[in-house]
Every structure is written in C-alpha cells, then in structure tokens.
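User: Sequence recovery, please. Input:
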C-alpha cells in the first residue's frame, strides 16, 4: 500500500501546501494586474516622461530632492484633504545671460565721464554762434569720434556741388546693399528712383541704400566719391575728419564736433540740402510704387523750433548723434551732439541748450568744459 510507504504522508502534505501557495500567488496577480494597467493608462504620465528623458531623481535625507536642472520633471508629495498625494511637475529653470555691454568709442575713451553744467547726455557737444563763430558751449569738442549717418550731409554736399542731374533715374543694385552691418532698407534691389529723390530720403530718413547709390553713380564710382568727400573736408578745414563710405555705416568715418560745425555752415549755403534735411515727411516714386518717408528728427515738425538744416546718426560705435542749425532767441546757432546715450537723448540735449540760451536776455555766456585727452583718440587743434 502506498500509505505504508515511508515518507509518503509528509510528501502529500508538502504537495498540498505547494498548491495552496501557488493558488494564492495566482489570485494575487489577477488582483494586481488591473491596477497596474490603470496606473499605466491614467497615472504617472510625468514619470513616463521622466523615464523617457533619462532623468534620475536624487534624494536628500527626508525625501527632498535636489534642484532640478533645466526642463526636468520632479516628483513631489503634497497633502490634499488630509491625504498624501504624489504629483509630477516639469520644472523650467531660467538661465540668466549677461547682456553684452555695447560700448561706444566715446565710452572706451572715457568721454562719458566728463560732466557739464547743463547735464547733457552727450559725451561731445558744441554750440556756436553761426554769424561770428563764437563758441557758446563746448564739451570734448576737439575729439574725433565715429559720426554714423551724419556722414550723409557730406554726401549731399558732394552731389549738389558736383552739379549732377537730379532728374536722372538710378537703379538700386546689390552693390548698394549693406553687407557690413546688414542694416534694414525699404528700398528693394531693382527699385528705380531719381537722384533727387535718393538725395531727399538719404538726408531726411537716413536711407543707407540711397546714399550708397548716390556714391556709386558718381563719376569714377565709389572710390572717386569717397576721395571727393575727403578732399572737401580738407578744403573746409575739417582736419580731424576721415570718410570711407557715403552712408556712415562704417565706424571709420570719424570727425570732431568742431569739424562738423564747419560742415553744417557749408551745407547751410545749399538751399536743396536745407529743404531736404528739414522736410518732415515726403512721398517719393520708387518706380514700382509710391513710398512715404519721415524725418528721423522729430524736432523739424515741432512748431516751436526753427531749424534750417539737420542730420541725425546712429551706430553702436558712435552712439546717438545730431547736428543742426537753428534760430534760438533770435540768434542763429549751430549745435553738434555726439555719442549721446538714449534714443531721445540727443534731441533732449538740444532742448536743454535751447532753454539755456533762452534764459538770457543778453548773449549767453561762454561755457567750456574740460576736454579730455584720451589715448588713441585723435585730437584737433
């Protein structure tokens, strides 16, 4: 009989215990499987993203996490209605980058450290009586700095005094496109415009491609035009002035405030330059369509200003620049401001000077501020 076999009864008991354990395990798996599927379908989406991204959570003592790196998913435990709940959040850690400091050439030379009684925001300033060349105010007036689009006034002077046909139609080409600073222009390649209109928008709206086209269509091309600019500067006694292009986009176009006052006086003798530079706005024929342009100097449209000639300029190396002729308190004056800080600071400086001049019933006293002698910046006599 199998019952009488030695060890049979213990074996039966072991087998029964094995079936009992196996049955319990199978039952447990059947209970746990739906819960696992539910968690997979509806929960722990953030955990899946974290796993897909290869993120690992490092915990400190007490279960707190280290600060998550940029775009990391973190696990948090919160208490809601007295119950603990695990949630997952994506954390975006902002990265801070230091803004590059754009220093002008005037800043590099230390001119911005010069203080003056009028608290001007321009590093360089000069105000003189146009009739007798009496200096009324000056600040670093002999220092040659980049002049940006103030260059275009010399461009206009060369074109006008060359006697070129203002009705001749010129075409904008790729040679007129700014490949140095990639500046914006509304004049598309292929646009056709008269020389007069190109000069108009170059002086009024500081249109760079217009200035480039004027130089390119000069007898001998751009090299001859730039040479004519420098020759005219020497003729006017602008000894600190150098030109390398007709638009002023190059920071190698430099001049002192004293030189620019000479340029204002010379350009003022040309009626066309006075008209074009002070026109508040104009609509010009660009060949394909009519285009409206506005003056870069809003003061020309102000009824309380009497401006006879003006030109603005800006590149990073030059800061904000302005030169102009105006009548203030019955006196014709020339104002030059270079390396001004702030978009409206150059015109605000003009307003400060004007109020200072108007405050005197007798001629305003001469104010001279110390002129710095920075190394590496050319000076005039």
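Assistant: Recovered sequence (381 residues):
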């Amino acid at each position: 009989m199998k019952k009488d076999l030695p060890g049979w009864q213990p074996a039966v008991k072991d087998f029964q215990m094995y079936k009992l354990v196996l049955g319990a395990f199978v039952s447990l798996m059947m209970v746990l499987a739906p819960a696992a599927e539910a968690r997979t379908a509806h929960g722990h989406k953030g955990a899946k993203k974290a796993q897909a991204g290869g993120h690992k959570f490092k915990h400190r003592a007490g279960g707190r996490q280290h600060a998550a790196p940029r775009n990391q998913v973190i696990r948090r435990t919160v208490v809601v209605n007295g119950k603990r709940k695990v949630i997952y959040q994506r954390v975006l850690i902002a990265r801070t980058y230091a803004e590059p400091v754009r220093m002008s050439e005037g800043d590099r030379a230390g001119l911005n450290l010069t203080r003056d009684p009028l608290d001007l925001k321009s590093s360089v300033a000069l105000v003189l009586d146009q009739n007798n060349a009496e200096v009324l105010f000056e600040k670093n007036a002999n220092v040659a700095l980049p002049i940006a689009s103030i260059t275009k006034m010399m461009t206009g002077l060369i074109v006008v005094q060359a006697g070129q046909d203002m009705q001749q139609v010129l075409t904008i080409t790729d040679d007129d496109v700014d490949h140095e600073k990639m500046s914006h222009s509304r004049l598309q390649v292929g646009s056709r415009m008269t020389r007069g209109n190109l000069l108009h928008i170059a002086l009024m709206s500081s249109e760079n491609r217009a200035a480039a086209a004027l130089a390119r269509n000069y007898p001998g091309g751009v090299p001859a035009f730039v040479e004519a600019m420098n020759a005219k500067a020497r003729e006017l006694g602008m000894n600190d002035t150098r030109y390398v292009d007709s638009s002023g986009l190059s920071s190698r176009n430099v001049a002192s405030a004293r030189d620019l006052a000479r340029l204002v006086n010379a350009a003022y003798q040309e009626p066309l330059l006075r008209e074009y530079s002070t026109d508040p706005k104009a609509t010009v024929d660009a060949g394909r369509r009519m285009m409206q342009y506005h003056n870069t100097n809003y003061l020309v449209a102000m009824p309380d200003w009497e401006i006879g000639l003006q030109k603005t300029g800006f590149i990073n190396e030059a800061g904000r620049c302005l030169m102009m002729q105006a009548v203030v308190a019955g006196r014709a004056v020339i104002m030059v401001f270079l390396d001004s800080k702030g978009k409206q600071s150059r015109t605000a400086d003009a307003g400060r000077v004007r109020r200072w001049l108007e405050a005197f019933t007798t001629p305003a006293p001469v104010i001279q501020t110390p002129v710095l002698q920075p190394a590496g910046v050319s000076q005039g006599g």
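The longest helix spans residues 8-42.
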